[in-house]
């Protein structure tokens, strides 16, 4: 069994095995004709269940053969131009090279004595991101597992900096379009069930700052404490960016922590043409970025950035076995002092490789391309009488629904759109997302693939209309 350990004696087997895996993925990528095969859980579950995990196959090649049937053949492929569903990006090759390196070396970024140069590379990328945000010298941050964790840590810092320790009194203000991790975080942080105040959005799905101002006043008048105001820079559904300067002003006036959730919109930090859309972000106390969304990085790659690095002390604990107090005096850079995680992947290497190969402008141009594509797509759908489209895009999502030519009930239209999404997924021809606007069922394109074309979008719209029409036709037959 020692022959499976990666070491000096097995370097050749390592090379062969990894190449074997790479070869199969490469073959799959070059032969996929659809983003999905339409496989169902019932189709796949018996094969996965039938694997006897106590009967090993002995070599990677055999295990990869088996894996093709269990996973690779039927995976959902984000690189396909007709994968238009969630905030998943096609990944850039330099980052995948980084991924292969980081998992083989297997550094852990909690302490210097488990990572050495890895810690310095992560720190440079945190500084680089802070520079792009416009933070000053005292800024800091740490890589995290994702936007949800970044938001949790930001709100932990906000809670610790709040003017009361009475958790029942704390309130968080975020738009009704903000990410659900804000609510989850409030729960994890022990706040009350009504701690998160949802501020209505305007027609463009941006937080209404007049209402935010009124709610902050009301909070004060009731003797409650505004713990944090969360602005979203790129809402998950609409890509809308809350008015950051006005929100910064209101948060400052009320002494609330100002957090900007830029999990999606962070790609603008590298954009050669659209950086101004984030103006005001430099006034935040903390910022969430998901490089695994708009920087074309493999999952996971995310960070929490803070304007005042000293606030990260709220995540600092010392353990004799890991990061004893004296290591601070000895100025040993232990990233665990800033993190909610202990053992932690060297995800930063993927972004490092990306910037060293492509440069920030290269990444930003890719994100610009998908934003341009969304603008084209909006025109396409707006001109199509079969569809209703909401909100001209700021980033790269389009929310729309099929509306039949003949009059039918709103509930039937909802069902037709739901059916069309499911039927499309089952066909594997394309994958789109669904969401609600008001109480109505909508569909969504999330565009993160510069290889997607207007023609792809037009073709998918035809497919959706076909499925919806078929559904409405059939239900009419049944009704009559
Ligand atoms: C995706 C997203 C998150 C959560 O990020 P994960 O990496 O999925 O945990 C948070 N906020 C916004 C606005 C997002 O779009």
UniProtKB/TrEMBL annotation:
Record keyword Transferase present: yes
Keyword Lyase: yes
Recorded superkingdom: Bacteria
Record keywords: Aminotransferase, Decarboxylase, Lyase, Pyridoxal phosphate, Transferase
GO molecular function, one term: transaminase activity
Cofactor list: pyridoxal 5'-phosphate
Family: Belongs to the group II decarboxylase family.
Listed name of the protein: Aspartate aminotransferase family protein
High-level lineage: Bacteria, Bacillati, Actinomycetota, Actinomycetes, Kitasatosporales
